[in-house]
Every structure is written in structure tokens, then in C-alpha cells.
Amino acid sequence: MKHNRIPVALVATIAVAGLSLTACSSSGGSKGGTSSKPSATSLASSTIKINAQPRSALKQGGTLNWAIDQYSTQWNYNQINGAEYSTDAVIEATEPVIFRVDPATQKVTYNPNYLTKTPSVTTVGGKQTVTYDINPKAKWSDGTPISYKDFAAQWQALNGKDAKYQIGSSTGYANITSVVAGTSDQQVVVTFDKNFGDWTSLFAPLYPAKYQSTPDQFNKGFLNTIPVTAGPFKIESMNATTKTVTVARDPAWWGDPAILDKIVFRAMTTDAAPGAFANGEVDYLNIGPDPSGVKQAQSRPDGEIREAAGPQFRHVTFNAKSPLLSDVKVRQALFQAIDRTAIANSDLKGLNWPALLLNNHFFMNNQEGYQDNAGDLGKYNPTAAKAALDAAGWKMSGQYRQKDGKTLELTFVYPNGTAVSKNESVLLQAMFAAVGVKLDISAVPSDDFFDKYVQPGKFDLTAFSWLGNAWPVSSNFSIYQTPVGSNNFQNFAWTNDPNVDTLMNKSIADLDHTTAIADANAADKAIWQEAGVFPLYQRADIYGAKKTLANLGAPQDQDEVVYENIGFTK
User: Fold this and answer.
1) How far is the CA of 47 from the CAs of 8, 103, 208, 367, 469, in angstroms?
2) Which residues pair with 400 in a beta bridge?
3) Torsion angle of alpha carbons 286, 290, 295, 299, nearest 10°?
4) What are the pLDDT digits (tens) for 285-304?
5) Could you tell me which PANTHER family the record lists for this protein (predicted)?
6) Of 218, 559, 560, 569, whose Cβ has the fewest other Cβ atoms within 10 Å?
């Protein structure tokens, strides 16, 4: 339920106002390795594997060891370096998430732990106005009541007006003109200057006012620490040496008490995690499209594979800020030099999952609104790629192309210890060589991948996945919007097209469902032409889980996890 998408070394997808996956509920886990792959049309019936159980069926207490792919330094999810899966997994256990998403229907409802009723949406003076009534029991761990001040401070930090706030996205917040108290400090009245259909994606997670009222507080208040909480769990310990964060049941929590005593989040590379699961060191992990990882995980007698069609996609991002990729014609040519089918089949080899190429930046194959907008740029055509590079002035000189005495030599950066990324780099290297482009491969420390390489643009090409949610367009807005000054939000491709901004703005402001879809697809067609983010395929959510683990699995996005209900069956 967030205004921006979560990057993961292994994941990706899209969101549009009010759109949802066509899903059917399933409560069971599944063993991998069945004899036939699910078809594209059957994916909609396999979107949830969480071993859903009532609280009464669970043992009281216990510790869940949860593998994450990074030990974060920035724990403010809304800060540019904070919007990452590992950060989100921890934060949503400890901070307010005021709306919940039903994993089966993707319906968004208010969280009664933080709000007393569904917020009212009215039009006052021609302006969209949303009124939130805060649960009077809700308070921060320092004793301060949650109030309109927290909402107001978060809006001021995230509205994009002060560049000193290093934010991941201003989507939705930029549409707000005021956040004030209503009849009391526990009533919040939010007035929009422009309609925002995905208003339920805002203020989640919510942070305390005193840690975001100034740029310094916002950027540094949750740096290397989580000082204040207001969730079913509180921080017990954070250890950068062992790369673990331990959260414990908070006795001051006013809602249903957490079933578990503790959750220990353990950061480890995606290559190491399956072995740790097989050895019983962790109970839950995101395996990703890794056949060897699945095989390792399957060796655990009391474990199982939970897989489902996730709202995520694998992609290659081209850095338009790089001198050799600043020409859109070069980027378009390189799109056509990539054989996505070969990459998908190689990435997914040995997995019980079809290769579903993705030709849309907003909608998944099994999502309402999906249409193929790729055109010729989505078709593998090395002959056309060569001709386009010739036309752009890059002529063959020996093995590689040159222009003005420079070789067309690019660098692909990926997180060390991520097998799927390494596999993609080798395949891309060969594909590019076939059209006269030299591709160097650079493996960087996993913990540094996003903060020190992707976000500051220290790469020519890279690949990872975007993990989606219930708001397809607004959650993707920051990935494709024009950078403002030095702030590229999550537009790691650094593309710049005012027409894309206009079309996306129209879509997220549309209150008519059909119109919103049409405008999102119009924006998508323009995004394809910018040739910054090249979708590869819709990724399967593949998790390893202890068989008795309940109410957690695949593809359960963090917005759908009710942390206090996670536990182990009796």
C-alpha cells in the first residue's frame, strides 16, 4: 500500500489506481517439482500460498527466523535509500500501516488498530477531502499519541517542495494542499489540490512527526536505528556485525497481541539463504527464480516450497545519464539486441514455472488492464539493432563499435552472490557482443548494491526486480517520472519525458476506472519509447517456509501481512 515500488535484487511489478490482480484464495503450501507447469491462464488461480490459519489454530510464542537480502542502514522507508524489501519487512512489523490489503481480493480496508472507521472522502469547495479518525489507543513507544501532526509532517517531508528531504517519491503527497486537525488532534483532514485516486496508498508506513519535521531528522533520524515504534512488535536488538534485527512482542500494543515472541530478520545473500533454510537456520526466505536454491530448500524435511504468481517483474535498467547511453536511439537498439525469451528460459530453467514475457510497465499478464505496448522494441532483432547503431554513428571497428575514437563499452553492475543476476550478465554480454557492443561485468557487495551503485547511478546497465502492490500506477510513478534536480526519486534510468509525466498524472487523478486504465496504457507506450526500463518477464514468487509456518508465504506483499497473526500451527 505504498506510493512507491520496492526494489529487490530478485523482484518487480506495477500498479494503477484501483486495479487488482484477479486472484483466488488458497491456504495451503505446495511442494515444488510437479510434473507440469502452470499455464499463463492458470496463474490467476495460484496467487496466494500463505497457509492461512485462524489465530486459535496457532501455538502461542515461538521465534521466526526470516531471511532478508540486505542489512539496511536507512530505516526510513520513505527516504530515497529506504524503499527496499528488507527495510520494509522489518518496518511493517514495528510501524503504523493504516490500511490493509486482502491477499485474495486485493481489496483495501482500514486497519482498526490505527483508524476507528473507513475514512470519509468528500468534495469541499471543489477539492477532494479525506478525513481520518485515529484510534485513540494508538500511540508511539515514547508515549506520544499518534495524531494529525504525524500526518502533516509526513506530507511536508514528501510533497517534493524541499529538495533537502531526500525522498523516494512525492506521488500523491504533491497533490495535497493541507493536512490539519479536525474536531480533535486525533482527526486528520487532508485536502487535495488535484484528485488522487490512490489516496489509500499514502501515509504508510507512518513515521512520528519529530523524526521527519526537518530534513535532517527525516534523512538521519532512522539512519542505523529504529528509535520509535508503534506496532505489534518492538525493537529488541540491531546488530550490524551479525546483520540481524530482532523484534519482540510489544506488551504495550493495544491490538491483538502478536502470536510470536520474536522475529529475527537475518540478512544474507540470496545464494546463501537456501542453504541456511535447508539447515534449519531460517524458517522463511524469498528464494526467487533459482533452481538450485529450490532444490536446496526442498531437502529440508519439515520445509516446503510456496510459489505463486507474484505482482513483480524482472527487468534491465539502462542508465540514460551515462554518456554512452544518453542517446535514446542507442538504448532502443540495445533493447532489440536482447533475447528476452532466452534470458527467461535460462533464469527459470529447472523451475516449475512458465516464461511469461512482460510487455507492459504497469500491469502484469494476469492483471486487468494488461496490453502489449512494446511494439518492435520488445522483439529480438539483432539485425535491426545493428542498423540502428550504425545510424547512430557507432560503426564497427574490429570486434566492437566505435564513434569519435571511443569504443561502445558498457558496464553491467549486479549484487555479488545473486545467481540470477550473474546468469543474466553473461547472457547479455554475449548478446551485445553479437551486435558489436562490449559489456563488462562488475559484481559489487550485496549490501552496497542499491545505496552506492543503483541509486547514485554508478552503472550503465543493471538488473533486479520490482516488487509491486495494490496500486499499479501510483506505485510505479516514481520509477518513470522526470528527475527533479539531483533527485531522481526511483527513476534509476534517469529518463526525462514530460509527456510521460502528463499521462501518468492524468491516470492517477482519474476517478473513472476505465479511463484510468486507458491513460496508464498511453503512458506505458511513451515509456517504452524512452527505452530506460526493459521488462523481461513476470516473476514467480517462490518462497521456502517451514511447513508449520502460518499466515505468511507467497506472494504475500508486506502490505498484506498481518504480523500479529504470524505463527506456527499446533
Assistant:
1) 19, 8, 34, 11, 13
2) 397
3) -20
4) 998 778 889 999 999 999 99
5) MONOACYL PHOSPHATIDYLINOSITOL TETRAMANNOSIDE-BINDING PROTEIN LPQW-RELATED, PERIPLASMIC BINDING COMPONENT OF ABC TRANSPORTER
6) 569
- Residue 509's pLDDT is what? 85
* pLDDT score at 510: 80
Helices and strands of the chain, counted as H and E runs: 12, 22
**231 near 253, Cβ under 8 Å?**
yes
How far, in Å, are 53, 120, 232, 465 from residue 253 at the CA level?
Answer: 22, 26, 6, 34
**216-230 burial, b for 16+ CB within 10 Å, e for fewer?**
ebbbbbbeeebebbb
The per-residue b/e assignment along 94-111, b for 16 or more CB within 10 angstroms, e otherwise, is bbbbbbbbebbebebebb
From residue 83, how far is each of 74, 77, 389 by CA, in Å? Answer: 9, 5, 36
Q: Pairing relation of β-strands 438-444 and 409-415?
A: parallel
Start-to-end CA span in the chain (Å): 31
Secondary element (H or E) of residue 233: strand 233-239
Backbone angles phi, psi at 147, to 5 degrees: -145, 180
Which pTM was predicted?
A: 0.73
Q: Is the pLDDT of residue 15 over 70?
A: no
Predicted pLDDT at 124: 85
For 241-282, write each residue's pLDDT tens digit: 999 999 999 999 999 999 999 999 999 988 899 999 999 999
555: cis peptide before it, omega within 30°?
yes
Instruction: Note whether 192 and 173 are within 8 A (CB).
Output: no
CB 125 within 8 A of CB 132: no
Instruction: Give 396-446 as a DSSP string.
Output: EETTEEEETTEE-EEEEEEETT-HHHHHHHHHHHHHHHTTT-EEEEEEE-G
Q: How far apart are CA 497 and CA 480, in angstroms?
A: 9
Q: 228: closest CA among 409, 76, 416, 388?
A: 76
Closest CA to 446 of 70, 87, 115, 190: 70
> Quick one: pLDDT at residue 19?
27
CA angle 75, 361, 157 (to 5 degrees): 35
Q: String of b and e for 439-475 (b: at least 16 CB within 10 Å)?
A: bebebbebbebbbebbbebbbbbbbbbbbbbbbbbbb
Q: How many CA atoms lie within 13 A of 336 on its CB side?
A: 19
* In the block, residue with C-alpha cell 513507544: 141
d(CA 557, CA 16): 16
Instruction: Give ∠ CA 17-155-502 in degrees, rounded to 5.
Output: 45
